[in-house]
Amino acid sequence: xxxxxxxxxxxxxxxxxxxxxxxxxxxxxxxxxxxxxxxxxxxxxxxxxxxxxxxxxxxxxxxxxxxxxxxxxxxxxxxxxxxxxxxxxxxxxxxxxxxxxxxxxxxxxxxxxxxxxxxxxxxxxxxxxxxxxxxxxxxxxxxxxxxxxxxxxxxxxxxxxxx
Length: 163
What we know:
The chain is built from six helices and six strands. It is α+β, with helices and mostly antiparallel strands. It has two domains: about 5-85, N-terminal domain of TfIIb (Single Sheet), CATH 2.20.25.270; about 100-160, no CATH class. Helix 4 runs antiparallel to helix 6 (about 150-160).
């Protein structure tokens, strides 16, 4: 069994026995143990495919660890949402999957960016910047990390240029 699945099972067992004591409000993913990034509740609600009645109206964090099945978690660790509970695939969880968007607003996938020439990659960046300037992006709702995708696209392009 992969280590993250074992950690998930252990977390679920702890959560059932004593959710408050065993999951202090640290902003760390209860499965991976890595720090999360705070996301707005509307981002979480917009991207979940589960009933929104189950979503607690409290602070949520985004777990970017690609080896962890958790995408969102509450500060106290009592609520988690996994990759399979989202409407969108998450780039940070599947960075090598060519079909997963890196830019959710303008639909630039990892595959598009990887296949592009250096000039076309610069055109992709220009396209995203133009969309931002025209106020056509809603990364806070479409991007699972709840923030602008431009940084992810730029980072991927820099990695590709180095290789």
